[in-house]
Here is the input.
Amino acid sequence: MSNLEALRDQAKKLLAKGEVRAVIGYRKGSRGMAAEPVVITRPEEAATLVWDPTCFHNLALYLVEDQKRLGKEKQKADKPIAIVAKGCDARAIVVLMQENYFKREDVYILGVSCETTGMVDERKLACLGFGTLQSASFRGDDFVFSTVSGEKRVAASEVLADRCLECRAPFPKVHDVVFGAEKARSLASPFAALLQFEKSKTSIADRWEFWQHQFERCIRCFACRAVCPMCYCEECIVDSTRFVVAPDTTAEEKANRLRWIERSATQSDNMGYHLTRALHLAGRCIDCGECDRVCPVRIPLRLLNTRLEREVRETFGYDPGASVDVASFVSSFRDNDPGNFIR
Amino acid sequence: MERILDKGHLLDWVATLTAWEVFAPGFQDGIWGYQPVSPSAEVRLEHSNTVQPPKNFTFPQREVFFTYDQIKGEAPKIAPIHPKPKQRVVFGVRPCDGRGLTRMDRVFNEQFQDSYYQTRRAGLAYVGLSCNQPTGPNCFCKSVGGSPVSSEGLDVLMTDLGDRYWVSSVTDLGLALLEVGGSIFSEPAQEDQNQVRATRIAAVSHPQRAVQNTAVVPSVLKESFSSPLWAALAQPCIGCGICTFLCPTCHCFDINDENASSSPLRGSRVRTWDNCQFPDFTMHSSGHNPRGTLASRLRQRVCHKFQYFHENFGVLQCTGCGRCISECPVGIDILSVVNQVCSAQVNGE
Amino acid sequence: MGDNSIYQPKLAEVIYIKDEVTGERAIKTFHVQFLNGDGFEHACGQCAMISVFGRGEAMISIASPPLIKEYKQFSIMRAGRVTSAFHELKVGDVIGVRGPYGNSFPIGDWHGKNLVFIGGGCGLAPIWPVIQTAVKTQDKFNRISVFYGGRSARDIMYKTELEQLRANADIYLSVDKSEEGWHEYCGFVPANIMDKAPSAENAVAITCGPPIMIKFVIQNLKKLGFSDDRIYTTIENKMKCGLGKCGRCNVGKDYVCVSGPVYSWDKLKTLPEEY
Amino acid sequence: MPEQSPPYEPKIVAFLCKWCSSAGSDLAGVSRLQYPANATPITVMCSGSVSPQYILSAFKKGADGVLVSGCHIGDCHYMEGNYLARRKIYLVNELLQFIGIEPQRFRMSWVSAAEGAKFAKVIKDFVEDLKPLGPQEKLKGQRP
Here is the structure.
């Protein structure tokens, strides 16, 4: 079991000794049981940190924000920033380092192991009808929820998020210090949700009908992009109507910027956005599943990403987020990459 | 007019509304949303609340204003496009969303009347359903001037009495809907009267989360423009559009020309939803941005709801539906933001 | 019904184009004439939403005085997608115009007073109709002075018109840095004001230009004794509707497209600084 | 016989690398090879420079089929551009099929500057495969 007190102590020590600028972690939110991301800078704030089954957020996102802010203010950090990282968050940090977004010494990784469980899926949990929930905690292979009518103990596998059920590496391999053990687990097979989808939609027509309906529903809130640590582009292709303007952007550039995708949430434009995003994430997506979790209209975005992840792993033998030392997927190749589809 | 409707007769009533397109909450794709009701469909009003408010009925995500068609060297031909008037009834609208409609009316139906909104609004009837219990943990309608039994913005208000609904008309349009139903309804008995009274009292007495000292919030926020708390509270914000796109009263939009062909020039001028949380929302073409930080954009959203709208229209814009709280990916909680900023200001922190 | 839509522009033909400034910060002046007997009257300081079909709309202040009924004048700096499209137009092209939007300068209140105009860069255009109106009805006003500066001599717009104005008004031009052939003031506009020190006695100051210039101009005007209610300026924020609905131009509760763009400093200073 | 509307001719957008495939198409032209005129060529510097969004954009603007063609493996003017293209385009192909786009609508080929005849055949085959499918409506933008 990851020891919360040990995590808090470590965070406190790092801040008190001035070894890090800040600690990115989780604290209890104000809206019921869910935790929320927090950045603390004072040692006494370490006591507010939490680690429970509602720490869904991929905090690597805030490392990106931090780098962007430093860049904008033309500053260089003199100390690393510490971050609480689950297995998936740590993989995201590895991809960012692979892409030279920051260096290993810029970040101090407070790893936390999900051990045999992971994060709760609030929608699955809602089906159990516990009503308003005050808090959630780990207990071995189970979760315990405190409700108005007392504690409820549930086998984690019943309410785990799909991404956690299918997780290969619930342990942050790259870390400075880690809380909790690397434990063997017997959970659903990798790509279980994808395989089930493929079994149910075998024909081109079935699949088109499904995805057409999904893309029609998108309201273009861009939460999937906003929550993704890999979507760090200063200017996304969907912003081509209103892009980032720097002092040296000329009127010429502004006038002639291509408009790839309109702002209207039409099926065609939505599809252009989601497909491009999926391809931009190929070999980079570490399946934290955050885009899927936050989508307010529940578009199963994870299916798109895991479909490409499976190709990346099985066809190209590439393991996203596994190592800083290998080149990123799209900037490398193998002589024996498949070419039989080419005429 | 007050009537009693057996739950088993709800669809019979719907069937009599032949002059209207009927919508009701349905569970599809893992969420509750408003769906067209087909004669064979089952209408389920036991939903908590829909993920998206019924805003789309009056203010769709995309509205085409006109098309243009221009052969090079000639004057463009402009063809105005306007929605066809439609008679629509939406069942199961919660009181917070009914009040949301009245807030949209203030924006689109008063100074500079928006004919697109008006046309869609004119043929629209809301058959509301009062909330016997808060629909979610983040409801706070009572502290922003609403109530779980409010009929504001609704044409008919229904209250669930177990095996039947208490149905009362609110507007003339609502009365017409009841009259169409005719004998499907029955006269309320004294017992029904007693029960609806008791149900509504119980509904209103359920505890909710709350905005503190609502009456002074607009004036306190006005003093809090430079509060350092805005930056602290906006820290986890990821700048997505969930809070505003799911809001029953957010109405910001963008207008763009969408070209289908460049030669001859053909396309349409289109209004789409826009969002004060996107960084480029207020960015000038020079790059200057009056609201360039997450903090300033959070402040804009909160102050628009709780201060600016109140200063302009005398009512709060927020109706307490709680969607922005429940669906925020990182737990930004408008209630907590308002309460923290205001209490810090009042206590001189 | 769509014809009555508040978003429907009227068609207007470009009848005159002049290059005011060339280069990076190019400014062109356009005269446009409504087609089909359409049109609208406007007051000094009001704006119009003008569009090149296929490229989009931009809010531009109407630079011609209300006295001129035959056409509307717009002076546009090339800055982005839409303004660049305007710079590509030729005489005879047809654009869309809707408006007029916003409030206007309270010229009627200024009768009998000295008027001090202070402009910088393309900020001369919004106050130009006031200057024109004041000069054409000069008997109603006392002394008229115009301070105007550009980054360099080639950034000075309305050159010819300013020269013609010298007969009726005091014109004080400036460029930011000294350059060959420039015989007037060298330095920023706020400094030029302190240099010439126009009297605040019975005077109203009207200023428009880059935000940083406005800030220092107002500081200096106050030093010269101008009271807050005698200083007028215009602000611009990004706009899409012009009707107080689209939600982006607000400064506090004020939608600049409806309550602005003209503000007296005593009003503006009460609003949050979001412009 | 009743008058018939002209037979359906699919529109193809072909992204051709400047060094090989574009030269190959020129060769097909100057060699007076007969092949269908359905392809709109867009010359790019390298097949590796074809971003997936170009492909999606072509479909969105109404292309019935999209072809990406570059130098043979080992012949890239920039040494490894086509290696990078190969894995990238492979994924585009997989993703398009995954969401339900007919596999016949998207194609990649290697055509060298000397292979005018091969270029003609690639286009001819593509047109033949596209014809039975009819116009591509799935990814096309519908306006207004």
In short: The mean pLDDT of chain C is 93.
